[in-house]
């Protein structure tokens, strides 16, 4: 037993110095690599966009938006389903109109509301509950609005509120 203990002490002393030296070298290497990685990422050499000060130079000229006008639709509340079910759809929208045609579209706004009301009342409740159906509903409503207002006046139908209660 006495032979094993001194051998472990003698063998343990050099092992401690080597493990401390390895830990110190590992720590210095980790700090150096971390700092180098931060610098290369921050400067934009790899893995990210260049600094924000370079962004305005890369952006092209700002293009003006096309001229648009909007005609707000009155909110609609449409009862859905059979008389036993008390489900309602709240719809609010806006029409994107070619500038200069706002008075024409505003003049036929009661017809537009009537067409939208009739269409939404006829749509199946299962279709209204489907989140992907809104794109098709919007296209159908836009087509009906364009038929009522005449070609070339209404560009788009913006859906501002579409809530099924």
Describe this structure as you would to a colleague.
The chain has helices at 4-42, 55-58, 102-107, 109-122, 125-129, 134-149, and strands at 69-72, 76-80, 87-97, 154-164. It folds into 2 domains: 4-58; 69-164, Band 7 domain (Tetrahydropterin Synthase, Chain A, 2-Layer Sandwich). Strands 1, 2, 3 and 4 form a 4-stranded antiparallel sheet that branches. It starts with a helix and ends with a strand. It has 6 helices and 4 strands, in the order ααβββααααβ. It is α+β, with helices and mostly antiparallel strands.
Helices, strands, pairings?
Elements: H1 4-42, H2 55-58, E1 69-72, E2 76-80, E3 87-97, H3 102-107, H4 109-122, H5 125-129, H6 134-149, E4 154-164
Helix pairs in contact: 4-6
In a few lines, what is going on in this structure?
The chain is an alpha+beta fold and 165 residues long. It has helices at residues 4-42, 55-58, 102-107, 109-122, 125-129, 134-149; strands at 69-72, 76-80, 87-97, 154-164.
Overall structural class, as computed from helix and strand content, comes to alpha+beta
Helix proportion of residues, in percent? 40-55%
When the domains are counted, the total is 2
**For the residues shown, what is the average pLDDT?**
84
- Number of continuous helical runs: 6
The gross shape turns out to be elongated
Rg, alpha carbons:
35 Å
CATH level-1 class of the largest domain: Alpha Beta
Distance between the termini: 85 Å
CATH topology of the largest domain: Tetrahydropterin Synthase, Chain A
CATH-assigned homologous superfamily of the largest domain: Band 7 domain
Biggest sheet features:
4 strands, antiparallel
Residue runs with pLDDT of under 50 for 5 or more positions? none
- Give the SSE string: HHEEEHHHHE
Number of strands: 4
Percent of residues in β-strands? 15-25%
CATH architecture of the largest domain: 2-Layer Sandwich
């Amino acid at each position: 037993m006495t032979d094993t203990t001194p051998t472990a002490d003698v063998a343990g002393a050099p092992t401690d110095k080597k493990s401390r030296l390895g830990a110190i070298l590992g720590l210095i290497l980790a700090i150096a690599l971390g700092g180098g990685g931060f610098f290369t990422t921050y400067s934009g050499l790899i893995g990210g966009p260049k600094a924000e000060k370079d962004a305005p130079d890369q952006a092209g000229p700002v293009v003006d938006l096309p001229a648009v006008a909007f005609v707000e639709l009155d909110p609609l509340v449409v009862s859905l389903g059979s008389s036993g079910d008390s489900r309602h759809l709240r719809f609010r929208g806006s029409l994107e109109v070619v500038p200069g045609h706002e008075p024409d579209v505003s003049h036929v706004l009661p017809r537009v509301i009537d067409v939208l009301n009739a269409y939404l009342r006829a749509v199946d409740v299962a279709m209204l509950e489907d989140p992907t159906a809104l794109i098709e509903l919007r296209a159908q409503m836009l087509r009906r609005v364009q038929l009522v207002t005449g070609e070339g006046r209404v560009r788009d139908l913006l859906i501002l509120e579409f809530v099924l209660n």
